[in-house]
Predict the 3D structure of the following.
Amino acid sequence: MPGIDLNADIKFLPGVGPQRGKLLKEQMNISTLGDLLLYYPYKHIDRSRVYHTYELSGDMPFVQLRGQILSFTVEGVGRKRRLVGHFTDGHEVVDLVWFNGIDYTRRNYREHVDYIVFGKPTFFGGRFNITHPDIDPADSLMLSTMGMQPYYSVPDKVKKRGINSRTLEHLTNNLFGMLKEALPETLSPSIIGRFGLMSRDEAIRAMHYPKSAQQLSQATYRLKFEELFFVQLNILKTTQERQKRVSGYLFSRVGQLFNDFYYHHLPFPLTEAQKRVIREMHGDMKTGRQMNRLLQGDVGSGKTMVALMTILIALDNGFQAVIMAPTEILAEQHLATFQQLLGDMPVRVELLTGTVKGKRRKAVLEGLEAGDVHILVGTHAVIEDNVKFKRLGLAIIDEQHRFGVAQRGKLWSGYDMPPHVLVMTATPIPRTLAMTVYGDLDVSVIDELPPGRKPVKTLHQYDERRNSLYHELRTQIGQGRQAYVVYPLIKESERIDLKNLEDGYEQLRQAFPDLRISKVHGKMKPSEKDEQMRLFASGETQILVATTVIEVGVNVPNASVMIIENADRFGLAQLHQLRGRVGRGADQSYCILVTGYNLGQDTRRRIQIMTETCDGFEIAEEDMKLRGPGDLEGTQQSGIAFELHIANLGKDGQIVQQARDVAKEVLARESVCPAAENTVLWQRLRELNPNPMDWSQIS
Ligand code: ADP
Ligand code: MG
């Protein structure tokens, strides 16, 4: 007998038909028989044991009894009105109680018929009660009711049309009954053997109808492993192909400029992490392939220095370099930093932003085309069409999550040979997520802060205690420090937020009439904004009241206090970024999270995490646990080509690592000597991802 076609329309499954088929398709994404198999239950309840009524006790979670209903009575009035079925297994009497659907229930169940009753017993009024029990005729016992019973989540819309978890149970049960052949295996025998994995057939069956909790765990592991393995295999294979195809400039030399800078201009010794990362990048650039690297480093870890030294390698090999920052302030800051660090070295650095106009702009553009400008620092102005380099060899993007893929791509399009690309981010992403989301990029991590940094002391303060807050603020400013006061700005309620900021500003002016206060928010003209920032950066104002426009990259080492108002309205990543604005000098810095008294559990947890750690990676891990990986900032441009059904990048980090290692091995061996047993892997990969990404469009 031929096997069943799992790609067949779900409507052909006995018990479905056209109408239910449509519903399953539209509301639950179950279009084929195969989809139904992959619609896993969200929980199971152990129904392997039938209890006797005399065994019941008040602290049992769920029990199953077998017996008959002796009689029904309707008791109570109004909202207490209820139907009671007096049930017994021949020993004690247990009351089955319904507050809803009284008529329906009364009609549906009969006295003196054998039923299996399932529910949570409570002791009340001298006997055990089970409210709203599940009841099945004892002779209709299914496979499932003998062991672990699956519970499927069903949207309300579908439930209203008469399909519930029980219906799905029947349907999957039918389908498994019809399957005469084992479900095809997708992993190779050696992978299965090495990790002691369950076969795919057994795993999928066990996901629905496990024989034990242990079998269920093994099945879950096998399916998560499979899913993550193919994600990794897909990413690694794509990367490998890109690397084969996209050749890059060969930077064979570390020369005059780099060495001169390293031995004579470094203002401080590099951290070990900075050295390692520079070596990694040089390693890329001397291979003849295009570098495509993500540099992750916590706020203040010294990415700018790494960027400059990488640029010097490009210059030493006769190329130009560009660094693009998300804001004018940041671009100007990079320019100033570079100029100061390079001192009298023969390197020409120029700025290109929206405010560089007229003659100055013309000179910069000409210098770039002639090759006289060695380093260009700027905002997205650097990707305008009329910006032409003589020999662009390296493009760096700072705070990459602020740019879209297309914007980034423009930076290196239109060249015969693409420049090396380095994207830098201070948004820490847990390793396992980075492996997946940025799988197309090589990742370097600066996991060490420069020495002597004191962790920012972080405190939680309630709104009401503003006086003591102001007292602290005055003490700090009295010692010559500066402070940020930040307000949330969220689009939906912009007007209220702006009012909060204005009110806060007024309040501060009244509390500190002797101080000068800057104010910055998104509704201001860029020129006004820049002026206010400049006043603060130069120390002419002592307090900066701002919305999150300051979140990214501003460096004012003298600022030692960060007050975050309505801190409950910020996510962890943002709080961490904001806190990174202080703690940049030698002094002890403070971050004060201000909230009202009324806080949800997640918010309390967020604030607690902030007060306990300054480690961006630890915070990122916690953030992922709280929010799930999908939400993390910067991960929308995800590299995951297919949906995860069962694995969770936040929780299954270990399996991600394992799956990645195996995928790497498979690929490595494949290039030496393709193994016949891996055919099944490539076939599965093509099924999952029939249209691999076209890298020529991106880089
Ligand atoms: P980020 O990684 O957030 O961009 P920056 O590059 O702005 O960090 O560096 C933050 C500060 O740390 C700067 O003032 C920089 O001069 C300083 N810094 C960087 N590297 C070192 C180091 N190895 N030792 C001491 N200070 C350093
Ligand atoms: Mg930076």
Notes: The radius of gyration is 32 Å. The mean pLDDT is 86.
